[in-house]
Design goal:
- By secondary structure, the chain is an alpha/beta fold.
- Among the domains are: 252 residues, P-loop containing nucleotide triphosphate hydrolases (Rossmann fold); 54 residues.
- Helices cover 47% and strands 8% of the residues.
- A six-stranded parallel β-sheet has the order 3-2-4-1-5-6, sandwiched between helices. Strands 7-8 form a two-stranded antiparallel ribbon.
- 35% of the residues are buried.
- The chain binds zinc ion (ZN).
- Zinc ion binds next to loops.
Length: 480
Amino acid sequence: MALPRTLRPIITICGATGVGKSKLAVELALNLAKRFDTHGWKGGVVVNADSMQVYKGFNTITNKIPFGEREGVDHVLMGIKEPTEQYVVGQWVHDATQAINDAHLSKKVPVVVGGTAYYIQHLAFPGRLAVEPEQVTDSLSPPPPTRPPPSDMLLSALSQITPDMRELFDALPEIPPSAAEEPGAALSLYNLLHALDPDVASRWHWRDTRKVLRNLQIMRDTGKRVSDIFKAQSSMTPAPKYDTLCFWLYAEPEELRRRLDIRTDAMLQDNLLDDVRELRSLMLPSKDSSAYFTAGVYQSIGFREFHKYLSDPSPSEKKYQVAVEEMKTANHQYAKRQTSWIRNKLVPAVQASKAAEGGRRAEVYLLDTTEPGEWTSAVRDLAISLMEAFLNCEPLPDPLTLSSAAKTMLSVPERATDPTAVLLARRKIICPVCTKDESQPVMIEQGREWDAHARSKVHKYLLAKCVGNRHVSATGSGTG
Ligand SMILES: [Zn+2]
């Protein structure tokens, strides 16, 4: 029996780097072009959801699907930004929403694909960004001349800070300072955030200058404290904006690492270093090179590693191999973070949305790509049959029944998805024992990280020394 469709459909494909997302997107779009549908959906448009592939050029380092493999399928939001242009999630959601509207108007099905899972999450489940897409201005255009007046909460917080802090708030830098090069500036921004909004500040380390500055900019631009924005958002369950069929392409970690290493070697064969050289040639000599590591396309994995190698006055084969290994490690870590985001954020959001009113639906299916020989049956054909059932408004199977990997990875304990709970679950605390220099405090996240830290040799050593000192001074047997 067909279910009534209340929302327009989108297909999303997420997953770690190197699992074959771009390939599946093209296969689905080609299949969409061939189908006949009583609802009229025919053809697909690929909407890029990879935060590095939005940049122009640098196709090797950003892993863009080569033109030859796009099979004539339209790819939008790919290669549209200049190398150092800032492009934040709210801007992407704004642009993707327009691209999806355009696709729907021509009865095409948007296939949103990319490794930046939080882009997809904020697109599919709106209402959880501190700055909503409507408020986003192009980073090249001047800031809005009038900003909304500060809320009572922000006003009260502003009235309690020192004049120095107030001056800093009124003239926030546009580019975050480097914590390594300018620890003083970094800590000042952190202290300002802490004074204005302690709940949000304790989520970050003072070295996370990009996040710290971003939170301050949001307060300046919205007139609201970020924790107050989160509190307002937490009072509602996010409902999907579209009828959303989400595919999570998955590979067992060991197999994925093996494939990523092969891909890194292939990228090096494919002149990865030319991309790095070109990026280096665009850098301003007056600017500290580490500032580039958090700017635009310069954040692509491989740039930092080979920039270091190419800057070396005496390069050697051994140093080259070190760079290769560092890039491989960075890829492994990135893949791990991507998988953990999907499992711990996206999947719970899909599950929580089922409680939302209005007959809207979002479903996530894990497709296991671990066996490369089984792509056609375990990935492509399965995805096509699920997509057909979804577009024809037929009932869909239970996602847990598709494979053993699906059963394991999709069975996540129910957890709080509202922003306030997430914020409070990840507080950073200063370790007074390990902090030698007050101007550069040692901060550790509470919970598992803190437990591991408290058991670490260095902490125990310093603690013993500290207790020893106190003992000496307390008993008065010290020489001082
Ligand atoms: Zn410590």
